[in-house]
Amino acid sequence: MKFGIIKERKNPPDRRVVFSPEKLQEFKQQFPQAEIVVESSDIRVFSDEAYKKAGFEVTNDISDCDVLLGVKEVPVDSLIPNKKYFFFSHTIKKQPYNRKLLKAMLERNIEMFDHETIIKENGARLIGFGRYAGLVGAYNGFRALGIREELFTLPKVETLADLDAVKAELDKISLPSIKILLTGTGKVAKGAQEILDHLQIKQVSDALYLTSEFTEPVYCIADVMEYAKRKDGKVGDKFEFYKDPTGYESNFMAYAKQTDFFIAGHFYGDGAPYLFTREDAKHPEFRIKYVADISCDIDGPVATTLRASTIADPIYGYNPETESEIDFKDEKAITVMAVDNLPCELPKDASEGFGEMFLEHVIPAFYNDDKDGILARAKMTTNTGKLTERYAYLQDYVDGKE
User: Fold this and answer.
1) pLDDT tens digit string along 205-253?
2) pLDDT at 298 over 90
């Protein structure tokens, strides 16, 4: 089995990689029978030289590899037929902009394994960049607050060397007595919480958060059963909600009336109630002034997210009255940070963390007959140009009927 670390070719450039040189060495130590090469890249956060020093061949030709490992979508023109590919294809939700990519992989008899489809039997994701999205998203939210209120100036994460440097910058700031709400309990929310805890902001219970004011900054974590409730007044059930959220409605307004800064770190499923609507944002008691929308569902459950923002220009304003974008410093504005590729700002740490998960959960499956079904569950397409049974629901999307 020959593995190739591919060059990222998507624009804007992404400096992340599945394996750092150090993690690749661990991979080789654990599975000495594996052959590993690295495709030359001038944008990767780790240089070609670093991989050579770690003992790996760096080449411009990876056509003899069996398994090709990348991060972002591979442009159609660069797909090599009859290979196994791992990357984020952004096709499992029938995203229109990547239909051609999935079609091309089927036509070229490529076996596609999407990083998003690498899951446990119960459906929980095994690998991803969620923690780093949470870390950078929360930091960016505080950066926006500092700029708007002219309280402090935090540098952009992309200008900093690593997570330690990010935390060192946070050590220099002090915050006003604001109330912060964080939604979610997954990897994204845990990453955001890491920033809140590093800032030594006190966590308080829902009951206290919803009924009290404080003389210091505080935060509260709300999971789905706090910000959504059953329409019939019965006690909600989280797992029932995940299966079918249609019997639920939003309970978010109770929090919106008590929150200055909202960090959206939740997962949003089809059919679930919006957290807050454009009408909700017009309510005279709607208090939220800052939104760091890490989940970044456009024109969706967080009404202030009109569009994804960019690393180059991460902040914009939302005017609740006109439901339109304005300058984020405008007194009528709710300040929004909605960058949709946050881990790209912290490529070194994000790559190291990703490689650790990939080595633990995915690589062993190639050498133990996939005893835990990791590869079987993750495989979307076959080497005979067909969708696997698990992903057969994508056929209409491939055919252009959806």
Assistant:
1) 999 999 999 999 999 999 999 999 999 999 999 888 988 999 999 999 9
2) no
Specify burial of residue 49 (Cβ count, 10 A radius: 0-12, 13-18, 19+): exposed
Expressed in percent and rounded to 5, the helix, strand and coil fractions of the chain are: 35, 15, 45
Task: Give the single-character DSSP code of 106.
Answer: H
| Amino acid (1-letter code) at residue 113 | F
Query: Which token pair is 50?
Result: 């670093």
Residue with tokens 């959206």: 264
Q: What is the pLDDT of residues 319-345, one digit of tens each?
A: 999 999 999 999 999 999 999 999 999
Distance CA 7, CA 72 (A): 10
CA dihedral 235, 238, 239, 243 (to 10 degrees): 90
In Å, how far are 178, 280, 335 from 287, measured between CA atoms? 11, 11, 12
> Is 232 within 8 Å of 249 (Cβ atoms)?
no
Helix (H, G, I), strand (E, B) or coil at 183: strand
Three-class SS of residue 138?
A: helix
pLDDT in tens, 165-200: 999 999 999 999 999 999 999 999 999 999 999 999
Cβ count near 63 (within 10 Å): 10
User: So what's the pLDDT on residue 325?
Assistant: 98
> How many Å apart are CA 376 and CA 380, to the nearest integer?
9
Q: Which of 193, 183, 196, 186 is nearest to 223 (CA)?
A: 183
Read off the tokens for 308. 């994804």
Which residues contact residue 280 at a Cβ distance below 8 angstroms, ignoring those fewer than 6 apart?
250, 252, 253, 256, 286, 303
- Backbone phi and psi for residue 85, each to the nearest 5 degrees, phi listed first: -120, 140
pTM: 0.91
Q: Is 116 helix (H, G, I), strand (E, B) or coil?
A: helix
